Input
Amino acid sequence: MDTGRTIPLADKRNFSMLTRVLAGAAALAAAAGLATPAAASTPPSPGAEPQVVGGTRADQGEFPWMVRLSMGCGGALYTDQIVLTAAHCVDRTGADSSITATLGVVDLQSSSAKKVRSTYVYRSPTYDSTGGDWALIKLASPVSGIPTLPIAKNADNNSGTFTIAGWGAAQEGGAQQRYLLKAEVPFVDDSTCQSQGGDYADLKPDAELCAGKLDTGGVDTCQGDSGGPMFRRDGAGEWIQVGIVSWGDGCARAHAPGVYTEVSTFASDIAAAAGKI
Ligand code: ARG
Output
């Protein structure tokens, strides 16, 4: 556990003070949970508490390409040796063996979990200027028997209903989760998202995609889900990644949708970078 990195949110400039405080608490919980597995959150009984926020437990194998990263982020397997995550989950481009990826399980404490170290990180060079909250993590060795999640290469699937999943907090300020949670969120168009005001007014329409239950809240990604995929079925019925968990004002609040990296905008940059690392 690299606690210096467990506060990926600290580098999201758009965060409110309250969110920073809550994020810090969640990050510490993540650190504690991962350092002493027994202290991780108690196994949620499926369907009992609102769980991502407002979700339910994913089945083993349902989203096989989901990855948990040791700094307290999510990710998706992009090739058999590269994980796609968020730029704000990593420090910089360069050699990096500090990250452990856990793959192949919904239960992070499962004895059948595959754990692979990182060797290299590629952080989107445009993240601080024009946006593009994405990064690639190269693993020490390829993983076998785990499908990858294809990324959207055009905007065709950038609307409709999306699936989100992660081991992050099940409520704002809550603990990291032992079991993968999933939920569905509707697309929110850019102008509606921007008109929510506050940080949303600065939304980068080409680089970011909003999703959430605008009027009611209640379903969302949250701290620790960052870097994980937002995905849906494409026209052929196959899962395709359209977003990367990036930020939000708190979690699951009404009129505060989740904001996701618009993957299709960066698809060719991602592919080019993956080919080089
Ligand atoms: N930036 C957060 C993280 O590091 C994810 C926040 C997502 N927030 C939301 N309301 N959708 O885990």
Notes: Confidence is low (pLDDT under 50) at residues 1-50. The helical segments are 17-35, 190-194, 263-276. Residues 23 and 223 are 6 Å apart (CA to CA). The first helix runs from residue 17 to 35.
